[in-house]
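Supplementary Methods S3. Input chains for the assembly prediction are listed below.
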Amino acid sequence: MAHLTYLAVLAGCAAAALWLEPVLRVGVLRRVRRLVRTVVPVALVFSLWDVAAIAAGHWRYDPAQTTGIVLPGRLPLDEVLFFLVVPVCAVLGFEAVRAVARRRGWPAAAWRAGDGDGPDPGAGTGREPQ
Amino acid sequence: MTYTAAVLLGLAGAAGLDLVVLRTRLLRRRVFWATYPIVLVAQLVSNGVLTGRGIVRYDPAAILGLRVAYAPVEDLGFGFALALATLSLWVWWGRRGVQPR
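Predicted structure tokens for the full assembly:
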């Protein structure tokens, strides 16, 4: 069972974030196309970083605590899953913050992300309507 | 190149993506800085397990040696770059009309 240790950490991450989808109705998992187009390029770039770091000897993985499935570039499958799970969790957290801001009626202008959630005259300029 | 140098490069890349390439400017938005502490806590816990249990081991020559919750301080930058790049791309797709709601 030790070889599932890394996967167990990922399952913990997922469990910590996935409840936000039904409870706060953030609609992240529902928006499959947007999520795939976000997570896949990020996972690809960070996997390449990982391969380069492994090649350079920056870090290595304990074979006893990972699945043992290793992709080209000596990249453990566990790491690729990390780069898929963590970004999904980050988006869930981001949308949860926005959901809470909306529900509590915090000033919308100050909480804008600029993705079609209202006019966006330029973040951080101090010129946003209050 | 050390991991330290690679992280500085990664941070510059993620910031460039957000501020210049995609122009999502999350680094200047409250919603991002309200989200990041949540991501950070999750990262400290999960990364603490990964490094504390020796699932991932680092070459002492590639890092500064300063550690936060078992993990090299460089990992904080790695996690920040990962979160910023992800959220910048997510917001950018929304702005381009890909499932904004």
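Chain B has a mean pLDDT of 95. Chain B is about 65% helix and 5% strand.
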